[in-house]
Amino acid sequence: MSGAPLDLLVLGSGVAGLSAAVRAAGVHGLRTGVVTKGGLALATTRWAQGGVAAALSGDPEEIDLHLADTLAAGAGLCDVDAVRVLVDEGPRRVEELIALGAEFDRDERGDLELAREGGHSVPRIVHAGGAATGAEIERALVAAVELTAAVVREHTFAVDLVVEDGRCAGVRVVGPSGSVEELRARHVLLATGGAGQLFAVTTNPRVATGDGVAMALRAGVAVADLEFFQFHPTALHHPLMPRPLLSEALRGHGAVLRDLDGERFIDELLPRDVVSRAILARMGETGAQHVWLDATGLDHFAERFPTIAADLSAAGLDPTADWLPVAPAAHHQCGGVVTDLHGASSLPGLWAAGETSCSGVHGANRLASNSLLEGVVFAHRA
Ligand code: SIN
Questions:
Q1: Whose CA is nearest to atom 1 of ligand 1?
Q2: Do residues 202 and 243 make contact, with C-beta atoms less than 8 angstroms apart?
């Protein structure tokens, strides 16, 4: 990465960063670099259990329904043009992930299985390995990027943007040996994920420390909606951190919430912020530290959700017999670096995509399984 400036320097190796790198290096032949502070495959994307929401039939009415559900979940604060882009272009991007080798769950006829989650009026979410969707997408994208000429620098921590003559000209990084270096590029894409580690209780891995937003703020780049941090309703109430997530797909398949008296108290398939608030209210009323997720009625739990079954087994819980203690945990940063519909930030030469960006698609609350989708759609556009 030393020598002549790169065409594109991507910061971050999750779904947004790797999608952009594959496209820039593999399709457009741009001189592309990827800098990631951990290993290439260790981004937060890998932790994403659910799913990718998209109206894969291509039916305009179904696409409009996805738009309506996204706007409703966003509580009136989404950018309608950005959501229109997300739902219109999403199906094509999912097909491209499949063409790259990502394997989503299929029924016995070979058709994609479509699941429902909170806030979705119809089943439209594809998963991989039950609740290991992010890991499968990350696997496919890492393999794809390794086939390109993109230069990858792992264990390299971007600390500040280099700004010259009112334009982003690169990034200052700290390499694995601790030495500071400037990497020059004509364009820099922030795809550094969210900031879940700001919170004491979170589903996010240790890498989710908001580096992209911090660098942008220090360079005077516009950010917005950082107050909208989404809490996932059903993180396992357990000392483990990050908290094991009990995917919304469980409720989509019929798991129900119960208070400590065993009573149901909320429609489990309302948008995530509504369900989280209802849980917190019930915890406040009863003085409890958690409520219960009752998944005992689900068939074939271990076959359908092997990764969740393994987490539960490690915690000494059997979902076919035990109610599972759950409580909300910080999960997704809805705001971030303000971008236009092509990922451009307020600083020329600086772009952003995925959780670190504020593309406008999430408003005050992200619709379940719209985040991996946002990553692929807006990285492609950027
Ligand atoms: C989940 O599977 O519940 C998480 C999916 C998401 O964050 O959209």
A1: 247
A2: yes
User: Which stretches of the chain drop beneath a pLDDT of 70?
Assistant: none
Contact 89, 377 (CB under 8 A): yes
As a dihedral over the C-alpha atoms of residue 18, residue 360, residue 229, residue 330, rounded to 10 degrees, the angle is -40
Q: Which atom of ligand 1 is nearest to the CA of 49?
A: 2
Asked if 179 and 153 touch (Cβ cutoff 8 Å), the reply is no
Residues 72-96: pLDDT tens digits? 999 999 999 999 999 999 999 999 9
- pLDDT computed for residue 49 by the predictor: 84
- In this prediction, residue 48 carries a pLDDT of 84
Q: What is the 3-state secondary structure (H, E, C) of the chain?
A: CCCCCEEEEEECCCHHHHHHHHHHHHHCCCCEEEECCCCCCCCHHHHCCCCEECCCCCCHHHHHHHHHHHHHHCCCCCCHHHHHHHHHHHHHHHHHHHHHCCCCCECCCCCECCECCCCCCCCCEECCCCCCHHHHHHHHHHHHHHCCCCEEECCCEEEEEEEECCEEEEEEEECCCCCEEEEEEEEEEECCCCCHHHCCCECCCCCCCCHHHHHHHHCCCCEECCCCEEEEEEEECCCCCCCCECCHHHHHCCCEEECCCCCCCCCCCCCHHHHHHHHHHHHHHHCCCCEEEECCCCCCHHHHCHHHHHHHHHCCCCCCCCCEEEEEEEEEECCEEECCCCCECCCCCEEECHHHEECCCCCCCCCCCCHHHHHHHHHHHC
| Catalytic one of 93, 124, 243, 272 | 272
Q: How far apart are CA 378 and CA 20, in angstroms?
A: 9
CB 326, CB 293: distance < 8 Å = yes
- Residue 282 annotated among the catalytic residues of the structure: no
For ligand 1, which residues put their CB under 6 angstroms from it? 49-50, 131, 245, 247-249, 332, 368-369, 371
State the pLDDT at residue 46.
86
